[in-house]
Design brief:
It is a single chain. The protein has about 130 residues and is an all-beta fold. The protein has one domain (about 1-10, about 25-130): Immunoglobulin-like (Sandwich), CATH 2.60.40.2420. The chain is built from no helices and eleven strands. The chain has strands at about 1-5, 5-10, 25-35, 40-50, 50-65, 65-80, 85, 90-95, 100-110, 110-120, 130. It is elongated, with a radius of gyration of 16 Å.
Length: about 130
Amino acid sequence: MRICLLTMIMAASMSGMSSGLAEEPVVQAWIEVKRLNGTIQVVPYCRSEQALTINYELASEKSGRSGTSRSRQSGKVALQAGVDTSLSQQQIGVTKQDRYQLILKIFSQGRLIARDEMTFPDNQNTVERKNL
């Protein structure tokens, strides 16, 4: 099963102001998850309308009978304009009893410009998504 949902957060537009500042680029961030025989493959993506260098953070937390496991990945990526860009990839072993949460944050010049969050509840095939 492939779960893919796009989250778009637009930065504040300066076009209506006479300050002369350029508009912020529209940046999209999303997490793709594929279920593969007792694991999930997690791939965070980002896309910008303009060429842009971003920093990202992907945090994951899995809770189950064996306890809680947390991991965090981060990096710097140069985005080409209009291109879906994979930021990283990870696999997480899961069971039906596990609950896991994924949070992707995209930063430009230290400012949060996009975010996606997924939570997979216990024993359900549903995904809860939260966005800024």
